[in-house]
Amino acid sequence: MRKVKATAPGRVNLIGEHTDYNQGWVMPAAIERNVVILGSAGEGRQVTVTAREYKQTVAFSLDRLAPPEGKAAWIDYIKGVCWALAQAGYELTGANLVVQSTIPIGAGLSSSAALELAAAAALVTLAGVEIPLPVLARICQKAENEFVGVKCGIMDQYAVALGRAGQALLLDCRSLDYRYIPLKLGDYCLLIVDSRVERRLSASAYNRRREECEAAVKKLNHILGRPLQSLRDATLEEVKEARPYLPPRLYRRSRYVIEENMRVLESAAALEKGDLATFGYYMGRSHAGLRDLYEVSCPELDLIVETASGTPGVLGARMTGAGFGGCAVVLLEKDMVEEVTVEIKEAFARNGWLEPYFYRTAAAEGLKVDI
Predict the structure, then answer these.
(1) What CA–CA distance (Å, rounded) separates 125 from 119?
(2) How far apart are CA 6 and CA 367, in angstroms?
(3) pLDDT of res. 322
(4) Domain with CATH 3.30.230.10 in the chain
């Protein structure tokens, strides 16, 4: 019997938030937590999936795939992958899948993209189909956009599929060109802090930010008198000059996106020089923009960043992921991890909030398939 093991990591975005669907630049890294799917050939056209974390088993037919009505469940991401693969012309076969994960759900670490990529890799391997990783990533994005109904950009799927140990991925979300940026952390490390404020990517707030950016592009097209594909095509000077003619909210969104794109490129240049202090500075500026201009942070994330940034040995901190809860990422000396952890725990306790979770990580390998 044909068997497969597909391992897909979560990801942390180091900098470049909400720029992916604006055709900008992002710089994520895969993390040392993952979704593992064990697969074997099944009967006919039926796919049976057992999720160990949920203690649930669900079966569905490859011939009857319909988008969820209302709130999506975990199985809809796998159904969506099957649907998107069929839409792309790939023929799947019946399969039995067992899913296990060490990625916290709803924390902004791309548990959904990891589930999609692991499922897609397992299913196509069992069907004897070979698909290049960038193509597989785009198919999984289509599944999330059009089947599940979450308008995510391409960053998550690319980071999960193409991650490389010890390196970040600098991705141009317009051309989909990418290159690897060395993460020479030396005596420093990355600490992910889960606020335990669960966020829902399919919530209206995320999709509303996309709509606001699209509206800003239309307004700027008219104001500037030239066509823009996305906010990436406007300069900061142009947006500042257009401020009197833009609704305040659209001005804030536009300014954030343009400045964040600039920060991503400057951060990549700094890391290539081994300049961690400059990268840490841009992390802090990124969080300020997400909090004040894009308005996707929350009190818990702000407290994590404020507390960490005020602790010796910390070079930078920012929220990561779509926001509205989830995680922050901190760049700090390895010897200061315990102190920063204690400081953040105490700060949360003073506010009567749930104790956050902490995950120390390095940049990890992307999607891996074993037969």
Answers:
(1) 10
(2) 7
(3) 86
(4) 3-183+366-370
Query: From CA 362, how far away is CA 32, in angstroms rounded?
Result: 7
Q: Which of 20, 63, 76, 156 is catalytic?
A: 156
| The overall pTM is greater than 0.85 | yes
pLDDT, tens only, 150-184? 878 899 999 999 999 999 999 999 999 999 999 98
Angle between helices 133-142 and 111-126 (to 10 degrees): 120
What gap in Å lies between CA 157 and CA 154, rounded to an integer? Answer: 6
The domain made up of 188-361 has a fold known as Alpha-Beta Plaits (3.30.70)
**235 burial level (CB within 10 Å; 0-12, 13-18, 19+):** exposed
| Domain span(s) for CATH 3.30.70.890 in the chain | 188-361
Please check whether residue 258 is in contact with residue 239, taking contact to mean a CB–CB distance below 8 angstroms.
yes
Sign (positive or negative) of CA dihedral 293, 295, 301, 302: positive
Q: For 89-122, b where at least 16 C-beta lie within 10 A, e where not — what string?
A: ebebbbbbbbbebbbbebbbbbbbbbbbbbbbbb
Phi, psi of 40 (to 5 degrees): -145, 160
Report the distance separating Cα 344 and Cα 359, nearest Å. 13
pLDDT at res. 202: 43
- 20 catalytic? Reply is no
Question: Which residue do the tokens 């953040």 mark?
Answer: 344
Region for 222 from its dihedrals, namely left if φ exceeds 0, alpha if ψ lies in -120 to 50, beta otherwise? alpha
* 28, 66, 323 from 362: Cα distances, Å: 12, 38, 22
Is residue 361 classed as helix, strand or coil in its secondary structure? strand
DSSP 235-299: -HHHHHHHGGGS-HHHHHHHHHHHHHHHHHHHHHHHHHTT-HHHHHHHHHHHHHHHHHTS----H
Q: What digits encode the pLDDT tens for the residues 107-129?
A: 778 999 999 999 999 999 999 99
CATH of region 3-183+366-370, choose from 1.10.10.10, 3.30.230.10, 2.60.120.620, 3.90.550.10: 3.30.230.10
Distance in angstroms (rounded) separating the CA atoms of residues 213 and 321:
17
Residue 368 CA to residue 347 CA, distance in Å, equals 39
